[in-house]
């Protein structure tokens, strides 16, 4: 039942306190009718006895405490969903912003969703090909996984996000694949880049875009990722599609949480972020996965910029605890003009072993992955030694590893943002690079694979 009150007691930033309420529920949708008839929306953030705290989605300027009316609508914030959402662009509150018609919804879903029952979860084990060698070959993305990208201010994570959205696909299946892209607090220029790129490459035909811009209300940022994930859940578990969800930039989401927490006068946690930041982030990340007996899946690639490139900052730190690994972009590689500047050594995909091998990628994938990783690490050490002691202090083996490290960065990692490599191409490039090393150094690959993929006559010492 809709209830209306004219008992606004206080307004602090995006928060509004209403007295004398009864029967009000947490997360209930609210309408504020101003004295001039303008309607603004919000939601119930807290209920304490006969007092309700309302979080406004728009600004609070112009609201008159005496004459404004508050209506509690007895329902949560919902998203109208339909398969016709694919190919459309929406704002952070789920309203069309591409000039197209309003949707005729098949259903209206609560954006807060319901956590997947752990017993009903299916274990992620199917390979997703992104076309990016540093991910596919060394930090493999698996269907149903949460694999964040840790970036820094000014690094080209937008280009990498667009590339993954454009190129990602599940191999060996005819199941429908969709991309849900949620942009949180990004600039107009960035938003236009994504929209133009998706339209130019045709990726828009299988994508749903939710765009929350930097000049939109900070409160809207809290809803945008939940709108995107609700759309993904509908497409995955109601329509049986494989959905890749890309969220950028989660740092802006956390800043909005901090802003609201400060307005609520809550006791701050680390770096001023609310103490429940971990719990709040988990309500987003844990909406990825597969459900037993259902054909669809949700795979998440959240992107966040680490303030001051600090991996110990609360946002990347807590994200690392919840998700299954991370892809880290390197400022040093970016300065060397590597595109994309993925630093494979600190990057990690905890589920990569489950999504590779015979029948999924190729029989030699695990061995070559381990050998490339070890060789690149040895090459980096050799180059550091060379800087300190000079090239003459290196053994022939060390020099080979140093040459390998340079070639690995220039050929394997730096592939550009338009090159779409199949997993076979990625593995073959890996074998070509291993020719730089003496055969005796290939200690992590079974002899039968060396004989099959690196015969004697092709070996270069």
Automatic annotation (TrEMBL):
The chain positions of domain ATP synthase A/B type C-terminal read: 354-453
Keyword Iron-sulfur, does the record have it?
no
Task: Respond yes or no to whether keyword Hydrolase is given for this record.
Answer: yes
Q: Tell me where in this chain the ATPase F1/V1/A1 complex alpha/beta subunit N-terminal domain is found.
A: 9-73
Superkingdom in the source lineage = Bacteria
Name a biological process GO annotation.
proton motive force-driven plasma membrane ATP synthesis
Annotated ranges, domain ATPase F1/V1/A1 complex alpha/beta subunit nucleotide-binding? 131-349
Task: Name the UniProt key words of this record, in alphabetical order.
Answer: ATP synthesis, Hydrogen ion transport, Hydrolase, Ion transport, Transport
Give a GO molecular function annotation for the protein: ATP binding
To which protein family does this belong? Answer: Belongs to the ATPase alpha/beta chains family.
So what does this one do? Produces ATP from ADP in the presence of a proton gradient across the membrane. The V-type beta chain is a regulatory subunit.
Q: What is this protein called?
A: V-type ATP synthase beta chain
Give the organism the record lists. Answer: Peptostreptococcus anaerobius 653-L
- What gene makes this protein? atpB
């Amino acid at each position: 039942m809709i209830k209306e009150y004219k008992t606004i007691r206080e307004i602090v930033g995006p928060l509004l306190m209403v007295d004398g309420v009864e029967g009000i529920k947490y997360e209930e949708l609210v309408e504020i009718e101003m004295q001039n008839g303008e309607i603004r929306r919000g939601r119930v953030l807290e209920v304490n006895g006969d007092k309700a705290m309302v979080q406004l989605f728009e600004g609070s300027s112009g609201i008159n405490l005496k004459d404004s009316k508050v209506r509690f609508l007895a329902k949560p914030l919902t998203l109208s969903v339909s398969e016709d959402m694919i190919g459309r662009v929406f704002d952070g509150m789920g309203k069309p912003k591409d000039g197209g018609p309003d949707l005729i919804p098949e259903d209206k879903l609560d954006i807060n969703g319901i956590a997947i029952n752990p017993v009903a979860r299916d274990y992620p084990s199917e390979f997703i090909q992104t076309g990016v060698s540093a991910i596919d070959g060394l930090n493999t993305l698996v269907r149903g996984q949460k694999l964040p990208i840790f970036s820094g201010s000014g690094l080209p994570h937008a280009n990498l996000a667009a590339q993954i959205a454009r190129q990602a696909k599940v191999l060996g299946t005819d199941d429908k694949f969709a991309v849900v892209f949620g942009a949180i607090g990004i600039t107009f220029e960035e938003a236009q880049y994504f929209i133009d790129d998706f339209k130019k490459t045709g990726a828009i035909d299988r994508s749903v875009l939710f765009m929350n811009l930097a000049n939109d209300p900070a409160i809207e940022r809290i809803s945008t990722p939940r709108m995107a994930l609700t759309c993904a859940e509908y497409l995955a578990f109601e329509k049986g599609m494989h959905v890749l969800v890309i969220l950028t930039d989660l740092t802006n989401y956390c800043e909005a949480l901090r802003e609201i927490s400060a307005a609520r006068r809550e006791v701050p946690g680390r770096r001023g972020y609310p103490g429940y930041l971990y719990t709040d982030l988990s309500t987003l990340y844990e909406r990825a996965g597969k459900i037993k007996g259902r054909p669809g899946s949700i795979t998440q690639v959240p992107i966040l910029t680490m303030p001051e490139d600090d991996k110990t900052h609360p946002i990347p730190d807590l994200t690392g605890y919840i998700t299954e690994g991370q892809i880290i972009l390197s400022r040093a590689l970016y300065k060397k003009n590597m595109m994309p500047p993925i630093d494979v050594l600190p990057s990690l995909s905890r589920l990569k072993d489950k999504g590779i091998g015979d029948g999924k990628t190729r029989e030699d994938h695990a061995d070559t992955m381990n050998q490339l990783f070890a060789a690149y690490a040895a090459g980096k050490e050799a180059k550091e030694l060379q800087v300190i002691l000079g090239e003459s202090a290196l053994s022939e083996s060390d020099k080979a590893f140093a040459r390998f490290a340079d070639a690995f960065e220039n050929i394997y990692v730096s592939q550009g943002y338009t090159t779409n490599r199949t997993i076979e191409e990625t593995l073959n490039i890996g074998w070509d690079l291993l020719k730089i090393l003496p055969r005796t150094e290939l200690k992590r690959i079974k002899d039968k694979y060396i004989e099959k993929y690196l015969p004697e006559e092709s070996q270069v010492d």
